[in-house]
Amino acid sequence: MKGIIILLLCIAVAFAITGCEEVVLEPDVVSDDEPIGGKRGTLSCTGDSDCVTGGCSGTICQHKDSEPIMTTCEFKPEYACYKQIECKCISNGCVWDKTAEFEMCVQDLRQKTGGI
User: Does 33 have pLDDT greater than 70?
Assistant: First the structure.
């Protein structure tokens, strides 16, 4: 219980310092704000079934046995584009299998919304 309280206090302090920006709790955490790169975690995968999506907005691709990645709960219009692609095991890492259509979707929505 004491550990949970300390964790919550750390998160609250981080939010206060960063102005509610991404809180990084793990070295391989990816922000919902920066999901396009598809950063790999430290666990290797052998098949697509080893990979899962996560994050509050569903823009994180990670190994199913990794610690959950904590992200801010926000939704940007371009996050809807993630419904068009899959979180897959590629070269032994869980990453988004991005397509040209996905990249265009993100670019179009960012332009329409002014990159909000």
Answer: no
